[in-house]
């Protein structure tokens, strides 16, 4: 399998430290609000990646954090604490906010067929690990204490900007327009590992530490959590492209300083979902959620198909027209699959291997899901029987997770039930006609009323009796 590596900026043969096993880490949500569908695009593509690795024979152990403390809107002691902001907005405690939006996130994942990782770890559950790592960085002289906080010293690194070629003056962490610079730092790119002195005097979550009562910085959590569950050799780290700098840059800095060797060999970043107005963001006011899609009548799986129709390294522009097109494509796809008979012959394994090879050719080339969908449509047109087509569609859906056979079988069952209901109604109309012919009007009225109670309205005319359903 070839996969683009954000660290080397090229496609590479995907290799792991331990043959056949993948240690995979994905950055989880900051649970202060609902996830918008732009956030969820990243999780969909990471889900497809994990499932394709399993499909290819790998044993995948995937870990994800839940950020329920310490994520500021800037990377210094500036901006707003997102968790505190959510708590104030809804007049709840931070942990109540975290629990509610964590549950909401996983509910959205369920609707989108996103598999829950093997291990999900809230940041608040690993405070001792964060403290231990910060202590280690101080001992190794990669961190210093200033103004009551602990900072990572980026000047000790041979290279800091590992994902890009920015100059230090171009991107100074924590130095944003209209944001006060943190004067405790020795270098503009230094970042906080642990806060004890913060402008957030009402910060709800604080813990005792060797440096005083405080709370961890954002970046330390992913490094410590991944090492706790996956060890100090990571095969694959995933996230949205906005995580590359500074979050993943800082993760690499502190992790490799702490362990003394390369930490993660492969980095996978998903590009933004944009609207006509630009990047989707919660800060812009109303934002699109899975619940909003459902309120407007869309099956969440249609949004998953919409995402799969584009490559993960391309920005994707969302519009309601585009989602309508995906919905129409999905409906046609399911209707076509519903016509395949599972009992019209045995599965032709020669055909299966032929089409599997086509699927692997495109999915194994930097996870090209758009061509993976094309490979799925090729199965629909294949000159083979329904049993073989259904087998292949089920096989591909182990990766794509579009509920292909489930939705097709449900549609077929719905049609069969409708046919049975129509047959019953026609039978009752015939019995009513016989009753009227025999001048048994009481029985004719009884049949009409019985159907009406079921939401079926009869209309008599010179052409006969017709019916409508409520």
Describe this entry's structure for a reader:
With 470 residues, this protein is an alpha/beta fold. The chain contains 14 helices and 16 strands. The strands form 5 sheets. It has a 5-stranded parallel β-sheet, with helices on both faces. Strand 6 (143-146) and strand 7 form a beta hairpin. Helix 4 (127-139) crosses helix 5 and helix 5 packs across helix 6. It is elongated. The two termini are 54 Å apart.
Provide a compact summary of the structure.
The protein is 45% helix and 16% strand. By secondary structure, it is an alpha/beta fold.
Compile the SSE list and pairings.
Elements: E1 2-5, E2 10-13, E3 21-26, H1 37-55, E4 59-66, H2 82-90, H3 94-111, E5 119-122, H4 127-139, E6 143-146, E7 149-152, E8 191-195, E9 215-216, H5 218-230, E10 234-240, H6 244-259, E11 264-270, E12 273-275, E13 278-279, H7 290-295, H8 300-308, E14 316-317, H9 320-337, H10 349-363, H11 369-381, H12 386-400, H13 404-437, H14 441-453, E15 456-461, E16 464-469
Parallel strand pairs: 3-4, 3-10, 4-5, 10-11, 12-14
Antiparallel strand pairs: 1-2, 6-7, 7-8, 8-9, 12-13, 15-16
Helix pairs in contact: 2-3, 4-5, 5-6, 8-9, 9-13, 10-11, 10-12, 11-12, 13-14
């Amino acid at each position: 399998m070839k996969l683009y590596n954000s660290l080397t900026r090229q496609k590479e043969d995907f290799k792991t430290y331990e043959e056949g096993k993948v240690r995979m880490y994905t950055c989880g949500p900051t649970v202060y609000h609902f996830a918008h569908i732009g956030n969820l695009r990243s999780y969909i593509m990471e889900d497809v990646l994990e499932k394709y690795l399993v499909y290819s024979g790998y044993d995948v152990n995937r870990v994800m954090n839940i950020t329920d403390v310490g994520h500021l809107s800037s990377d210094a002691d500036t901006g707003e604490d997102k968790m505190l902001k959510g708590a104030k907005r809804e007049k709840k405690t931070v942990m109540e906010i975290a629990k509610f939006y964590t549950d909401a996130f996983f509910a959205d994942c369920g609707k989108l067929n996103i598999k829950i990782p093997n291990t999900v770890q809230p940041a608040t559950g690993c405070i001792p690990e964060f403290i231990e790592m910060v202590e280690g960085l101080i001992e190794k002289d990669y961190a210093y204490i200033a103004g009551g906080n602990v900072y990572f010293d980026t000047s000790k690194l041979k290279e800091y900007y590992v994902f890009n070629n920015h100059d230090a003056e171009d991107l100074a962490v924590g130095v944003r327009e209209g944001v006060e610079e943190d004067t405790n730092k020795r270098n503009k790119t230094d970042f906080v590992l642990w806060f004890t002195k913060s402008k957030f005097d009402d910060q709800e979550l604080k813990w005792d530490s060797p440096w005083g009562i405080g709370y961890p910085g954002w970046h330390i959590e992913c490094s410590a959590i991944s090492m706790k569950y996956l060890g100090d050799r990571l095969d694959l780290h995933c996230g949205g492209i906005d995580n590359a700098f500074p979050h993943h840059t800082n993760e690499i800095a502190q992790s490799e300083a702490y362990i003394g060797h390369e930490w993660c060999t492969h980095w996978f970043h998903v590009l933004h979902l944009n609207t006509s107005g630009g990047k989707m963001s919660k800060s812009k006011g109303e934002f699109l959620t899975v619940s909003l899609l459902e309120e407007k009548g869309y099956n969440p799986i249609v949004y998953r198909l919409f995402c799969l129709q584009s490559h993960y390294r391309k920005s994707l522009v969302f519009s309601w027209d585009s989602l309508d097109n995906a919905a129409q494509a999905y409906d046609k796809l399911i209707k076509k699959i519903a016509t395949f008979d599972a009992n019209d012959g045995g599965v032709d394994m020669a055909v299966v291997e032929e089409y599997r090879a086509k699927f692997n050719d495109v999915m194994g080339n930097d996870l090209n899901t758009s061509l993976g969908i094309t490979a799925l449509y090729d199965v629909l047109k294949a000159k083979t029987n329904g049993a073989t087509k259904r087998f292949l569609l089920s096989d591909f859906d182990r990766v794509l997770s579009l509920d292909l056979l489930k939705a097709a079988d449900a549609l077929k069952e719905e049609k069969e039930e409708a046919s049975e209901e129509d047959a019953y109604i026609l039978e009752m109309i015939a019995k009513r006609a016989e009753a009227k012919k025999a001048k048994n009007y009481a029985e004719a009225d009884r049949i009409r009323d019985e159907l009406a109670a079921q939401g079926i309205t009869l209309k008599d005319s010179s052409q006969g009796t017709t019916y409508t359903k409520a």
